[in-house]
């Protein structure tokens, strides 16, 4: 299955600004993107970057500097998905994604949807030509509505690894505890450690 | 499979104090508990409450006012789990849990573990007599270590519905978007609504 991976190349992960410098955010976002691309490939997907500017990576790439929703919808129109020609759309910051978790996207359904926290949508597989995305607000609910409006069947993917997009400092704890790839190594190399007192788990940075 | 559901009956959900009164927190925690118990029963489990004081519910109940870790470990010793006699331990605040998600706990493995956010552990199925819990700190990592120490095989359950325990006001958004049972109805009746501007989803309360 083809898999589109939208990536904001120029100023990624602004909500990590309290713990990472702009250069570090770019480097960490690159590591997460590498993890998503390699997990997709291991799961048998053919990934294509949908980047706001050229990344120079050795992976098929479409450059589109429009906002996320418009750029993804243009790609959906261009791909014209059908049951024989599905298109997945997978967020670039799913640092916990494993090939097994991504494989759930290949399940039957005109629209297969992996929710993100806060009403978001972290991954989709689209097999219906009339489906469009809307990433503003509670996109999960909007995507259910859109699927219903065009008569597309929906399947929810119940995966915590796909539900965990990395946006905020507290999300880095998840990467340190459960990450298995480059993004976790990046954080360890940058000096991040878990601080586990008696209560909740916090993050510290040394060195 | 028997399923133990620990429940702090006297002062539940203190981290929701900014949005719910003490009486409301008790009532909302009751609704979540009802959801977990009914989902367990629909999935074929035999639930037993492990409550800090008697709840008066029509469900088998053990009263133990010791801290969570001690009370669960006493129940594990008492049950003496084995492959033929597994014991599940399921948090009472998994308001998104469905029978399908809970059924993953019946998969093979001496210790089947559903992680929670922040390095936590939201649900377990134990088939090994030597396994013990430790809910302090990064319990997920502690539980992996304990399983390794006693030679127990481990299986991770990748379920976002089981990973989502409801502790903080932002978690109520998940219940409103994805809940299907009493806890969602409780929030709606209490006047909570999603506020979806152009960006992230917030919570408002009316009436």
TrEMBL record, chains A, B:
The keyword Transferase applies. InterPro entries: CofC (IPR002835), Nucleotide-diphossugar_trans (IPR029044). It comes from the Archaea. Keywords: GTP-binding, Nucleotide-binding, Nucleotidyltransferase, Transferase. One of its GO terms (molecular function) is GTP binding. Pathway: Cofactor biosynthesis; coenzyme F420 biosynthesis. It catalyses: (2S)-2-phospholactate + GTP + H(+) = (2S)-lactyl-2-diphospho-5'-guanosine + diphosphate. GO terms for biological process: F420-0 metabolic process. It is an enzyme of class 2 (transferase). Its EC number is 2.7.7.68. Guanylyltransferase that catalyzes the activation of (2S)-2-phospholactate (2-PL) as (2S)-lactyl-2-diphospho-5'-guanosine, via the condensation of 2-PL with GTP. It is involved in the biosynthesis of coenzyme F420, a hydride carrier cofactor. Homodimer. Belongs to the CofC family. HAMAP family: CofC (MF_02114). This is 2-phospho-L-lactate guanylyltransferase. It comes from Halorarum salinum.
